[in-house]
Every structure is written in structure tokens, then in C-alpha cells.
Amino acid sequence: MRINCNILFLFLIYGEMMDKKTKYFGLGILGGIGIIAIFIAILIFIPIVSMIAGPSAVAVIPVAGEIGYGASSENMTVANPDIINALIDRANTDPSIGAIVLDINSPGGSPVASEEVLSKINSSQKPVIAWISDTGTSGAYLIAAGADEIVASPSSWTGSIGVILTLADLSEYYKKQGIDIYSLTGGKYKAIGADYKNLTSEERQMLQTMIDEEYAHFIGLVAKNRNLTIDYVESIAEGKIYTGQQALDFKLIDKLGGKEYAIELAANKSGIGPGYQVITMSPDYGPLGELGI
């Protein structure tokens, strides 16, 4: 009977231990679920509060380096339109953001890539201010032209409304090196622009026609987005580079100022009151963002 009592006692202790483990395990699960629920509630609650309270931040989106579809590296910074456009979309869908500032420092680049960003700016539901720091020329100026207003530093370089195609004729070099290059083509003009020969007059005219067409398209986009006449833009374009002050005189920009002024202008346009936040957006911008001043 004593043995049975001991066994019963052990069973009671074991049962109590299991009850505690089950209890703690259950509390752990509930605690984990609670934490997840709180996190989800925060993610839902913040946008709701932002929608009720209204926007309280200005988003700054960098447009730096050559405009194109490649990736940045240690030796070169690329302003990829896919990334820039994705950030503009995020800024438009974030209820806490009231306006966008494009921080431009670029010599231009791909006409197609530049026009893609211009199109995205045109469709923005929130005010967009372009700020040109050191350089905002060619395709970068085309991007800036889509903004509601352009601010540039007095010493910045902007403009350069034009198109360029650069080809090299290395035929004499190849001859001196004893290198003979041949090509078999299907199509009369397939080898146009090859560096082992010069252009024929017909090829030169063909390429010039294409460049003139692209140039006219560029001028038309600037005229439309800056509310200027095509004749006027043609008269000041011609690939000329202007300082910020000159660009203001020629109506290519709207105001002179620095980055803080551009951000303040954006905040005022969106109706954000004092004490607003500045969010510098990057490709990894998430729910909490990257805050700066």
C-alpha cells in the first residue's frame, strides 16, 4: 500500500509539472500571438491615424548619376528609372507623405529612361518639387521639367536641351596595327556606325534625321511641361548649359535656393504645417522609413 501511495504521489507531482508546462506553453503561444497582433495593429493603426490627421512629412527622392537601366557600382552611380518610379509610387500611397522633392544631381543619360520618370511625375497625385544641386542637365532637366516647380542653386548647371550621338572612326588605327575587319550583313545599313569604317553621306543623313526628330521631341516635352512655346524653347535650347541664375532668367526654372528651401516649398504646397518630417527614401524604404532633417 505504501508503494502505491508513493506511485500516486509521483503521478500527482508529474501531473502538476505537466499542468505548469502546459500553462507556460499556452502563455507563450498567447504572448507570441499577442505580439504579432500588436505589430499588425500598429501597421494598420499608423496609416489610419495618418489619414485622419493628414500628411506630416515630405519625401526626398534622390536622382543621382547617369540616368539609365543599369545598376550602380563602386565606380559609377546610376539613376535607374524603375527604382525612382517605384519610390514615387510609394510616396503617393503613403498617407503620411504630403509632397515629394526630387534631389537631382545628374548629367542626364538615356532619353527613354528620362521620359519614363517624367511620365511618372506627371501622374503623381501629390505635389512634386525638383531641386537641382550641382547638375541637372539634358535628361535630368527633362525629369525636372515635369515637377510643379523647379528650384536650383545659383551656381548649378542646368539646361543642355539637346541630343548627341557619338561615333568613332578607328579605320586608320586598325590599318596601322595591321588589323583587317570584315563584316557580313543582311541589310544595307546593318553596319552603320561600326568603328572600322567612316559613315557614308547617306548614313550620316539618316542618323542626322533621327537625331533631329529626337531633338524636336525633347523640345516639345520641355515646352509642354514648362508651359512655354516651342519657338521659345528652340531659341534657348541648342544644347546650351546655363547656371541657375541664367536658367531663372530664361524661365527654365522657377526659383533659386537650396535643398531646405525646396523642401519647405514642397511642404507649403501640400499644406503641411510646421514641424513636418523629412523622409529620405531609398530602394529599401519600409514602413518606418529613413528619417532625416
TrEMBL record:
UniProt cross-references to CDD domains, sorted A to Z: S49_Sppa_N_C
Enzyme class: hydrolase
Top-rank taxon: Archaea
Peptidase S49 domain: residues covered: 122-271
Signal peptide: none
A Pfam family of this chain: Peptidase_S49
Biological process annotations from GO: proteolysis
Protein name (Swiss-Prot/TrEMBL): Putative signal peptide peptidase SppA
Transmembrane segments annotated in the record for this chain: 24-46
Enzyme Commission no: 3.4.21.-
Gene3D superfamilies named in the record: 2-enoyl-CoA Hydratase, Chain A, domain 1 (3.90.226.10), 6.20.330.10
Keywords annotated in UniProt: Hydrolase, Membrane, Protease, Serine protease, Transmembrane, Transmembrane helix
Record family assignment: Belongs to the peptidase S49 family.
SUPFAM superfamilies tied to this protein: ClpP/crotonase (SSF52096)
GO MF annotations, alphabetized: serine-type peptidase activity
